[in-house]
Amino acid sequence: MEKIIPNNLIKELIAIPKNFDLDLIDQESGFETKIFPFVSRSQFESLESSNPAIYKKLARAGILFSFVLDIPRLKVYISNFGINQYDHDKARVAPWWDIRDLGLSWLKKANDNLFSALKEIEKDDVLKADNTFFQDEFELVSLFDFQKFYGIGKSPEVYQYLSDIMREHLGLLLMSLGTCTVEELKSDPKLKEWLQKYLKNMAICSAIYNANLLFINSGIVIQYEELPWQKSVILSPEQVYKLGEQFSKSADMYLQFIFDYMQKNASLFPCYQSQEVEFRTKIIPKKGGLFL
User: Fold this and answer.
1) pTM over cut 0.85
2) pLDDT tens per residue across span 245-256
3) Where are the domains of the chain?
């Protein structure tokens, strides 16, 4: 297992017990799956000297993600990690739910640091132009826009799943409008606003079909096999259905706004030619909480 971050820097960035065995952590897996898809390794390494503040945020995020992914290993070597409870001055291994809660805390901090680092990169035109995440960002709705619209835990990974959904529905919408392009739709401020709201609402109601995503009280999160979320925060199938219905209705409303506006202002949109395309998501409750 390659060490991306040296032990002395890990101890500087993260408060860990003195007896913690850092060799238990697979940094390579953590960084390759959770950091480098958003900030390339070459950019990450260059930031160490060019922008230490961003580098440390990414390093902290990568280590914390590595901890989360290695929770099954940490459970086996729990005494090395030093997570103990004390009863009459005698140590005993902490229960699983305490370890899980610690893992969820690591996950939140990891996403917070990655989100903050990307926000700093966005402010620098040179860094942004060289960044893999922003090169592939959905042009109509940014990560930061979506986080304001609906809670995604500041997770670029959740955002990427939702971006794929928005791209799909944008493509279907364009098919229904004739020869209109995204640039033509964006040129009208009112139409652009409705288009963005339509896509964000469609992303939420369509996300219920994605097995990698989970709806909890505070929004949408990644479903980790290594780290199950508390049942108390997970929305029930009935709650998810109602939520999907709510966002589906909003999406349909904005979609109608778009069609009505383009029809009434046909002179502004000579590209518009109404086409019959089936693209509205229908949410149907099934036994067992399935939605088909």
Assistant:
1) yes
2) 999 999 999 999
3) 1-136, 138-292
